[in-house]
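Hi F.,

I've been meaning to write this up properly since the lab meeting, where we talked about keeping a consistent format for the predictions we share between groups. The idea is simple: the sequence comes first, exactly as it goes in, then the structure tokens exactly as they come out, then a line or two of notes. No screenshots and no reformatting. I'm using this chain as the first example so we have something concrete to point to.
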Amino acid sequence: MARRLKPSENEAVQARREALRRREMRLKEQARQAKRIRPLVTPEGAALNLRIASASERAGAFLLDFSLQIMAMIIFSWLLAVAFSEMGFRGWQVAGSIAAVVIFLLRVFYFVFFEIGRKAATPGKRALGLRVAARDGGRLTANAVLARNFMRELEVFLPLTLLVMGAEDDISNWIRLLALVWAGIFVFFPLFNSEKLRVGDLIAGTMVIHAPRVKLKRDITSVDPLPAAEKHAFTTAELDAYGIHELHVLEDVLRQSTPDIKTRVADRIRAKIGRDKAEGEDDLAFLEAYYAALRARLEQRMLFGERKADKFDTR
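Output, unedited:
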């Protein structure tokens, strides 16, 4: 006969089972999150691990943006109605024409306006901590933003327009069915690829990623005094060539790299900022001085609310 467990032993077994269950759930969640990590090497050789936005996050951001668009359309239409209410039927015709044009422009260029800016994100994306990025790791171009957003007209708004057509004949019903199938294919397309890309993303070479706020690491100059920094002076333009990301890379170079790598990095920085190597100048001293000056410049800008994420940030 099986030995009956004492209450204390039974509780211990239950606790172990619960611990194993939680560990299994944690491992599954880690595996699920790992699938959303996309390693990327930029054209400059910087290795990044980007977290891809999920389909639900992208849908949530779109619904927020769509709600903002609807609110703006309602407010604008109401203002037009008030402005043209005393002109009678002709006034309503003029107001309707103006509203149709403005609503079309708002629908088309709302996403373009925000994504072509420095944040590369609409209000909906920013609310969920997302942004648009180029899949090759380069700079997000205006052509890519225009392409991905004009494709949205074909993916979403064109079939929606066909679905709300007023006629009720057989041809219109078939058109509605076709529009419904068309919209379904494009809406659910992100569910069937690992990077959750829309068709517009495939055409434009873009993706939507998480964009956590960048924080400066601990200053290595607070531990290791850098007297070499006093021997070099850098202009504002020379320091504004790089941002927080490059500061972190430079810090890793100073901490861990070989002298040969330090020399190559120093040469690349000099070429970037347009400065020639002075006779007898030590590369390590130059890097330490530039690191200290760049960090001070970035911290100064952050005090005024300016956060330069990387060298592509034109702020």
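Notes:
Strands lie at 37-41, 47-51, 130-134, 206-210.
Residues 222-229 have pLDDT under 50 and may be disordered.

If this format works for you, I'll send the rest the same way.

G.
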